[in-house]
Amino acid sequence: TPDIFDTIRNTPPSKNGEIQIADVQLKLAKQGKVLGYKFKGKRFDCGSIDGYINATNITYALEKTKEAAL
Asked: How many other CB atoms are found less than 10 A from the CB of residue 3?
């Protein structure tokens, strides 16, 4: 919900100096303000350079495979 923005502003950074979205989600869940959606498909962690590169490489390869099938 849009409440996430106020919660982010009011969440102190963790020991590494970053605001952890998981902490924000937990606070909102305790207030009953989290909605979820279960989906089928691939999920990529783009929080690191390696994860981002992996996601883009796989997505690119899938698109090229689809194009080749046409």
From this structure: 13
Query: CA geometry: angle at 31 spanning 27 and 19, to 5°?
Result: 15
Q: How many residues does the chain have?
A: 70
Read off the pTM: 0.54
Q: Both tokens of residue 58?
A: 């796989």
**Taking a C-beta distance cutoff of 8 angstroms, is the pair 42, 58 a contact?**
yes
Residue located via tokens 């929080």? 47
Average pLDDT over the chain, rounded to an integer = 88
Which residues are CB-contacts of 7 (< 8 A; sequence separation ≥ 6)?
A: 24, 27, 28
Segment 39-66, tens digit of pLDDT: 898 888 888 899 999 989 988 898 888 8
